[in-house]
Design a protein that fits this description.
The complex is a heterodimer of chains A (about 160) and B (about 550). By secondary structure, chain A is α/β, with parallel strands linked by helices. Chain A has one domain: Alpha-Beta Barrel (TIM Barrel), CATH 3.20.20.70. Chain A is built from 6 helices and 7 strands; from the N terminus they run E-E-H-E-E-E-H-E-H-E-H-H-H. Chain B folds into 4 domains: about 100 residues, Alpha-Beta Complex (Sulfite Reductase Hemoprotein, domain 2); about 150 residues, 2-Layer Sandwich (Sulfite Reductase Hemoprotein, domain 1), CATH 3.30.413; about 90 residues, Sulfite Reductase Hemoprotein, domain 2 (Alpha-Beta Complex); about 140 residues, Sulfite Reductase Hemoprotein, domain 1, CATH 3.30.413. The chains are: A alpha/beta (about 160), B alpha+beta (about 550). Chains A and B meet through helix 2, helix 3 and helix 6 of A and helix 1, helix 2, helix 5, helix 6 and helix 8 of B.
């Protein structure tokens, strides 16, 4: 069982509920691909070079990036790079993520978190909501002159 | 000095509140120790041999009297009345209790200080030349750049869980006092042929178990491109740095294994993506920071009294010779206060000493204090006319040791007396060396000599870049000290070469004595320092001094 965290709330998996699916990168054949991009999502390893999947970005509406351990921060940079490349679809982080990392994930461009139930059990919903207060007021937005790319309820 | 604005204030308060919550979550069992660990580390809290250790950031080593007094108060209230200044310009408290740490962080926040990112696999406290803003040879004060980097790296969303820790140093002078070539990124302020100010960017330096001299990845980076370009370097490192082996996870290994040219290409490519959405901070913001570092109003008074005092007081004369450096204003000097008394613990200061320094800074140094990576304290702006009085005060406080740059001005890591990683003691070795050479009364005769001691191969004591480096190891339960020769921490950086088999703790000081004797015999004049003699003559005569038996056997 997994739990989806969106805007600080535990909620159901809307992507799946609306008929969406994730297929793995190695099953994705650009040549023969005929799926409906509206309901096609892709699982990419966190060792993926974002530019190597540039051709896919128009064919999918969701990308899921794994966090095998909370200490492995590659997913943050991949998400950021995908947004820098202009990807606008759903970005989901899946795996071992701590409530304290939630602002980092949002600010790197993720929309939502997919957490295994036991991990969600140890990190109740209020911890994620509390974390949301730390999305705004960050040094990087001030310094870069850019607007936050964090997609929270207010901005999305 | 930089003063927090509302944003900084709010940020640090929020961060302290967050950490208080994390401590509670840990105590209540919501967080496992494994999960708590990176969170406490990101707030400077280590678990050491005997207790927790809190490492407080002193950004680019700059303090004022208010901050220094607060450090003293914390030492008294929550520790054992002293603190330890480190090679990264931080201060460490060795005995805080976990439950007290949020209160300590609150106390720090009251004076605009924190312990954010002094540990963990993130961008650490940015260091800079401790003579910044005062040195006669300076092109430009590196601290506005360092402060900009502090802000940019603080809670950066991409770079809190890097493969390994990441250290940045900035130097604004041709004489590199910030060891920029031994950092993950070293930044040197330079000018191009048109006189335009910019940065030379050095990448992949580091000490530790695989010491490497940093390499220039960009010879000239225009001022306005600094942050996005560094973001590109960090992004490449975050994605490509090794995570399979923590001993091969620093960027120096990535650069070494991949090759500088390929890394440079990858960085330039990443930069192309980052540039469009990351314009440099506004001039208003940058100038706002720079204003905090404008030079104080210097008071150019006569120095005749100073010259007279020097004539009358040989001890003062000796102090000035070693501990006072040239200031850009000829009426001023830069006073370094040694935290290396004979037989003392390098870098330790009692709360009383901290308060003495705070008083002196307030009265005589335009309220500025610096911590040097060599673990000493600096009063950067002192009128020469006031030096005699300062010397008197320092003497009474046990802080007037005249040994800056000499054999007893030793960098030493905490070693086995405190550190969980250490394989040998460092502090007692430093104490023995300074005691012995003090007995011999040779210190001033020997002249400039940098001894650096690490208690394990992680090299926190910078032994690789000591003119004489000492590395303490554990050989089947017995401490064994390896000597390296010819290291150099400056702009002419070199890694020391291992002399040969190590020495026991008892054999070490006699071996050093033989080494120094030989140097005194072979040097061309008293102007030729140990490092220069070593470079001129090569290792041979020095190895003979260290290993006389081996020479005899070979003969």
């Amino acid at each position: 069982m997994t739990v989806i965290i969106r805007d600080g709330n535990f909620c159901e998996d809307e992507w799946m509920a609306n008929g969406g699916a994730f297929i793995s990168l190695d099953q994705f054949d650009l040549e023969t691909h005929e799926r409906d991009s509206e309901i096609t999502g892709i699982d990419i390893p966190n060792s993926t070079d974002a530019e190597s999947i540039e051709g896919l970005l128009e064919l999918v509406s969701a990308i899921r990036i794994p966090f095998p351990s909370f200490a492995d921060g590659r997913g943050f940079s991949i998400a950021k790079r995908l947004r820098q490349m202009g990807y606008e679809g759903l970005l989901r982080a899946k795996g071992h993520i701590l409530a304290d990392q939630y602002p980092l994930a949002l600010r790197s461009g993720f929309d939502e978190i997919e957490l295994l139930a036991p991990l969600a059990g140890r990190q109740p919903e209020r911890q994620w909501r509390d974390s949301l207060t730390r999305v705004e007021n960050n040094y990087q937005d001030r310094l870069s002159g850019r607007n936050s790319i964090a997609r929270t309820a207010e901005t999305a | 000095m930089y003063i927090y604005n509302d944003f900084d204030e709010k940020f640090v308060r929020e961060r302290t509140r967050q950490f208080r919550g994390q401590v509670e979550k840990r105590l209540d069992g919501y967080l496992t120790e494994d999960e708590f660990k990176p969170l406490r580390l990101m707030n400077g809290l280590y678990l050491q041999l005997h207790a927790y250790m809190l490492r407080v950031a002193i950004p680019y080593g700059t303090l004022d009297s208010t901050k220094m007094r607060k450090l003293a108060d914390i030492a008294d209230k929550w520790d054992k009345g002293y603190g330890h200044f480190t090679t990264r310009q931080n201060i460490q408290y060795n005995w805080p209790k976990l439950k007290d740490v949020p209160d300590i962080l609150d106390a720090l926040a009251n004076v605009g200080m924190h312990a954010i990112q002094t540990s963990g696999n993130c961008i650490r406290n940015v260091t800079a030349d401790h003579f910044a803003g005062a040195a006669a040879d300076e092109i430009e004060d590196p601290r506005p750049t360092a402060e900009l980097l502090r802000q940019w790296s603080t809670d950066h969303p991409e770079f809190q869980f890097l493969p390994r820790k990441f250290k940045i140093a900035v130097s604004g002078a041709p004489n590199d006092r910030a060891v920029t070539k031994a950092h993950d990124i070293g930044i040197r302020m330079v000018r191009d042929d048109k006189g335009e100010a910019g940065y030379e960017i050095i990448v992949g330096g580091g000490l530790g178990r695989t010491p490497m001299v940093g390499k220039v990845i960009r010879e000239f980076l225009p001022r306005a491109e600094l942050l996005p370009y560094l973001e590109a370097i960090l992004q490449v490192y975050n994605l490509r740095g090794r995570r399979d082996n923590k001993y091969k996870a620093r960027i120096k290994i990535l650069v070494h294994e991949t090759g500088l040219d390929e890394i440079r290409d990858a960085v330039e490519k990443a930069y192309e993506f980052i540039k469009p959405e990351f314009s440099h901070p506004s001039d208003e913001l940058v100038n706002g920071i720079a204003r905090y570092f404008e030079p104080p109003q210097f008071n150019n008074v006569q120095t005749a009294a100073f010259d007279k005092a020097l004539e009358e007081n040989p001890a003062l004369c000796s102090f000035v010779e070693t501990n006072v450096a040239e200031h850009k204003n000829p009426a001023y000097g830069i006073v370094t206060i040694s935290l290396k008394p004979v037989g003392g613990t390098p870098g330790d200061a009692t709360s009383e000493q901290m308060r003495t320094v705070a008083d002196l800074a307030e009265k005589f140094s335009h309220d500025e204090v610096r911590i040097s990576h060599e673990q000493n304290i600096v009063l950067p702006h002192v009128r020469k006319a006031d030096i005699a009085e300062i010397y008197q005060v320092l003497k009474e406080a046990g802080l007037a040791t005249a040994n800056i740059g000499l054999i007893s001005d030793i960098i030493a890591c905490p070693g086995m007396d405190y550190c969980a990683l250490a394989t040998a003691r460092s502090i007692p070795i430093a104490q023995e060396i300074s005691t012995r050479f003090n007995e011999l009364k040779l210190e001033h005769e020997i002249g400039e000599l940098k001894i650096k001691i690490s208690g394990c191969i992680n090299a926190c004591g910078h032994h690789h870049v000591g003119h004489i480096g000492i590395l303490g190891l554990d050989k089947a339960g017995i401490e064994n000290y390896q000597i390296t020769l010819g290291g150099d921490a400056t702009e002419t950086m070199a890694l020391g070469e291992r002399a040969g088999p190590g020495f026991s703790a008892e054999e070490l000081v006699p071996a050093l004595e033989r080494l120094i004797d030989t140097y005194l015999n072979v040097r061309e004049s008293s102007q030729e320092i140990f490092l220069d003699a070593y470079r001129r003559l090569g290792a041979e005569p020095f190895l003979t001094a260290l290993y006389p038996e081996a020479e005899k056997d070979a003969a």
